[in-house]
């Protein structure tokens, strides 16, 4: 089995429907019959997209061509709605989640729907997860922060504990990147900011003691190869051992927590993948492509297959075995 855990969807949502979330700037899809479309934010064009993002037939055809057996399908981060009034955000998530289920109904054995939640209101987020699981969602997709609250925030830790209790795996995606005023042009927020946001989220969970407070049954995956976490882990361990202010709230050095979360394989270089597997262990890396966006892996699994440092057993785990366990129903 080849399972892509990091693949996005923007189901057909009209401008009128987007007003469930925001009267002026709600996200919606302007889709053309020619397979070209535009993600919209109110009246503003946000990003051009292709039919694989909203058309399940186009998605399944692309999967067939690429040799992908299954995808975990998650919303495009523009759709999160974390800045909205919580009641409107909850209604919006219900709409989006219903549309994701409709999209995945085209082939339920191959398309695994992940719900989104109003993370700005943890009580509503927990209720949304429970409803979504009952409706058929296989996991939860969240941004790496809601405003200034990261996954080490007490209420978000409570939300993650609820996901563990429900047996719902959680996929964490970077978004709304830090310091945009210093990353103008050349897609630097995506090239630099996403890696920084992801490492920041992981390190905050470790050093705050959030992982110590969460049940080990929580299945948590960080996209984009965990950002810069693996490359800078030695720096973090050195700081933990040598400065009491770093280790004040965590029971062990950062390297001791690599068995508490997963990462995807979207690092685009066999050398980087080798390091990632060495740091995380072969059971903690899963194939992720960022389909269907142009910064994703164009040939799913190519980097995994071309990494000579990996054994065939490890390749099989990354390409599908680990994801099978990650999304197993409980």
Automatic annotation (TrEMBL):
Class of this enzyme: lyase
Keyword Heme: no
Top-level division of the source organism's lineage: Bacteria
A Gene Ontology BP annotation from the UniProt entry: secondary metabolic process
EC number: 4.1.1.45
Domain Amidohydrolase-related: 3-327
Keywords: Decarboxylase, Hydrolase, Lyase, Metal-binding, Zinc
UniProt pathway: Secondary metabolite metabolism; quinolate metabolism
GO terms assigned for molecular function: aminocarboxymuconate-semialdehyde decarboxylase activity; hydrolase activity; metal ion binding
Annotated transmembrane regions: none
A GO cellular component annotation in the UniProt record: cytosol
Annotated family: Belongs to the metallo-dependent hydrolases superfamily. ACMSD family.
Complex formation: Monomer.
Protein's name in the database: 2-amino-3-carboxymuconate-6-semialdehyde decarboxylase
């Amino acid at each position: 089995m080849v399972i892509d855990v990091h693949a996005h969807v923007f189901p057909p949502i009209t401008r009128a429907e987007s007003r469930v979330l925001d009267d002026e700037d709600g996200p919606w899809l302007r889709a053309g019959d020619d397979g070209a479309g535009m993600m919209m934010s109110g009246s503003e064009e946000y990003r051009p997209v292709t039919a694989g993002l909203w058309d399940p037939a186009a998605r399944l055809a692309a999967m067939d061509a690429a040799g992908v057996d299954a995808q975990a399908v998650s919303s495009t981060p523009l759709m999160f709605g974390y800045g909205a009034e919580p009641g409107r955000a909850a209604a919006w998530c219900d709409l989006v989640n219903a549309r994701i289920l409709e999209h995945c109904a085209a082939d339920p054995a191959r398309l695994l729907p992940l719900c989104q939640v109003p993370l700005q209101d943890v009580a509503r987020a927990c209720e949304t997860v429970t409803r979504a699981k009952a409706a058929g969602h296989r996991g939860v997709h969240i941004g790496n922060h809601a405003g200034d609250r990261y996954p080490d925030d007490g209420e978000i830790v409570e939300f993650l504990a609820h996901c563990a209790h429900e047996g719902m795996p959680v996929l964490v995606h970077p978004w709304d990147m830090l310091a945009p005023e210093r990353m103008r042009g050349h897609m630097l927020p995506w090239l630099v900011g996403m890696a920084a946001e992801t490492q920041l989220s992981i390190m905050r969970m470790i050093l705050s003691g959030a992982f110590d407070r969460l049940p080990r049954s929580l299945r948590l995956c960080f996209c984009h190869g965990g950002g810069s976490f693996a490359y800078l882990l030695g720096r973090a361990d050195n700081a933990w051992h040598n400065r009491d202010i770093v280790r004040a709230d965590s029971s062990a050095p950062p390297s001791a927590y690599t068995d508490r979360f997963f990462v995807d394989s979207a690092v685009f270089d066999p050398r980087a993948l080798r390091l990632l597997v060495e740091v995380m262990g072969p059971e903690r890396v899963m194939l992720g492509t960022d389909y269907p966006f142009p910064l994703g892996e164009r040939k799913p699994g190519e980097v995994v297959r071309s990494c000579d440092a990996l054994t065939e057993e490890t390749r099989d785990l990354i390409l599908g075995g680990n994801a099978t366990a990650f999304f197993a129903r409980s």
